[in-house]
Design a protein that fits this description.
alpha+beta; 2 domains; six-stranded antiparallel sheet; 11 helices; 24 strands
Amino acid sequence: MQNLLKQTDRLFFEKTNLSLSSAQNLTNEALLGSDDGELFLEYNQSESFLWDDGKLKNSSFDTTKGFGLRRVVDEAIGFALSVNLDEKSLKDAKETVKAVSGHSVKVSSDNNINPKSLYANDNPLLGKKFEEKILLLQEIDSYIRNKSDLVKQVSVSLSGNWKAVQIIKQDEFRIADIRPMVRLNISVAVQKGDRMEGGGTGFGGRESYDRIFDEKGWKHYADEALRKALVNLEAKEAPSGEMTVVLGSGWSAVLLHEAIGHGLEGDFNRKKSSVFSGLMGEQIASKGVTIIDDGTIEGRRGSINIDDEGTETQRTVLIEDGKLVGYMYDRMNARLMGTKSTGNGRRESFAYPPYPRMTNTFMNGGNHSKDEIIASVKKGIYAPDFGGGQVDITSGKFVFSASEAYEIENGKIGSPIKGASLVGSGIETLTKISMIGNDMRLDSGVGTCGKSRQSVPCGVGQPTLRLENMTVGGNG
């Protein structure tokens, strides 16, 4: 971590009109008499490329930098930001945040943390030439079009990001992180007669572009995008009603993330606005259900060495064998609830204050094989992939649409169906889990979580699950 401080010092102090001593002194003055707070410095480089309709439609490169200064007293927050890294801007920000005052009990910073390095700090944007990136998009487009005469449209996007942050608190506390991120997304549209359908997939993580440029890697995801599109081309209208539903492993956990994960974040429970409020220690899910948020998995999209308050990220068990045993906390909500931060204080950028947010949230595996679970269902649907959805945190009610789904008849996967949506309540769904697969896997690295008008990268995962008496919406 000392090496990261030296690297980020060059970005924030050697190449700007702000000195380290001024930043530390002004931060101390801004936070004097507060409960908590920090100066959050950020330097960000990002690029993106979009290949669509057989040509390069968009390419962009952007560099941003700035700071966010936050002062916390009780549950009141003073926050100021600037894109100018200079002493005057920080002095102005200090005067702004000091308007927040009141009785406080100072929370000391942990000066002894030594987080594990979960990813390399090299800049992925520098690893490949511009021409190589465009050539890759062309190659993927040609590969997919040559696989089927039914392909009418291919869209491929490539993005990379390199973010350096440094956090300064009172008592000379400083910590830094450098966070790479890459992602490839592929969408395919196919047509037969008058009918057109689509399919898509993608992958990435906190790494270089090497895995994306590896032919074996991108071909697998190109094949998947085309396969999903062709499946949807043959799909019939989904049935509706109450039935058994089997969720596929991996990305299907986006339902778990939205319908359950958000309800286990500390701010909603402190305010008692979550359906899970006041249920700590109670059996809220079927036996065998264990759900974890873990920001310490190497290279994953949702992983972070430290959160955006300077707390070491960690593995937090939320539900264990069906019992609610934990929430996800940032520093403020942890302090107000008499506990410690779990390293889940996250923000989209320096322009926002942090909130408790998920990292990589997943359900542990069980004892049943996928084939065993499918064979146990006389009539129902199998949904291995999901698209968008909506959830109400207070009630836990959700609606999620399946982007790939099939009928199950007499223990066998049957015809593909389209238009299927799951309707229910997160807390009720936890009790409807009757079989848990032994095939837990994380998603491929494309998740983004929205909350309080902020977006942060995240990961999800689960094994194959059998759910009883689920309400399915469809047109059939």
